[in-house]
Design brief:
Strand order of the largest sheet: 1-2-3-4-5-6-7-8-9
Radius of gyration: 19 Å
CATH architecture of the largest domain: Alpha-Beta Barrel
Helix content: 25-40%
Shape: globular
CATH topology of the largest domain: TIM Barrel
Oligomer: single chain
Distance between the termini: 48 Å
Number of helices: 13
Strand content: 5-15%
CATH superfamily of the largest domain: Aldolase class I
CATH class of the largest domain: Alpha Beta
Largest sheet: 9 strands, mixed
Number of domains: 2
Amino acid sequence: MITRSVATVDSLTWQEQLATSIRDPKQLLNMLGLDTSLLDGALNAHEDFPLRVPLPYLQRIAKGDPNDPLLRQVLPLGSELLAAPGYSDDPLDEQNSNPVPGLVHKYHGRVLLIVSPNCAINCRYCFRRHFPYQDNKPGRSEWQHALDYIANDSSIREVIYSGGDPLATSDKQLQWLTEQVASIKHVQRLRVHTRLPIVIPNRITDSCLQWLTSTRLIPSMVIHSNHPNELDKEVANALYRLKRAGVTLLNQTVLLSGINDTLSALQQLSERLFEVGVLPYYLHQLDRINGAAHFEVTDLRAKQLIAELTAALPGYLVPKLVREIPSANSKVLIL
């Protein structure tokens, strides 16, 4: 069993923290003092979609509590293997919006680059848990096809780095790719969708800030936090660094049963996000990916929560309640 003090974990580089992530369900249960009756289901679900939890995130999970909201996001459960009506391996139909390797083009004016097939953490509700990453991990020479696609479409004003998690890639590679994108004159904005500042805040290094802010592109970062317990001091410091460097910070949350489907959790999350320099952006209804049905919250309950948030908070702290529909031209507001 791995045991590390907080001081030891914080002294590791982000790459070392990534490499020492917990990948064994039995080890996770032992480290958190959880009932081994959870093990069989965890092992079975782990075979379908592997467990991955970095140590900085693990340290925020309460020991001995199987209902801890951070644990529930990462612990494999046997219920993930049960079929559910309306759920599929590709609920957003992304494979039909993947014209060249590494690029997804669904919406007018912006394209998404699958910069990395890897994540630092495997969230159990991930809508890309079955994405064909083996077909979407181009090397530098293959990236030229995606760059040519962008260069040949003057309507593309924004490039979005996604994955996996784009920040699981080296800063050297990200610097190169960002310079290539910046050389395409009609692209104006760079957006990075990432969970790394939340799960491994040490990822925000000087070299990370360099490629984010050293070109003419206007940078923004959309982080992914689902619960206020994720936003500890180390995460706050990483987000402050980004904000001071001139990066616009937004947050996307997925509405998840048993994790954040209460007014208290969502209100505290919005207030804590603003405290650390991030504006709430979207509250997503669950994408119906196979394995995630137990997280679903009804639209009725979701709309009730938004109404309660609107009454409790100023408008700029209330995220938009949305759903992604494959045929739509943008995220669809749930009213």
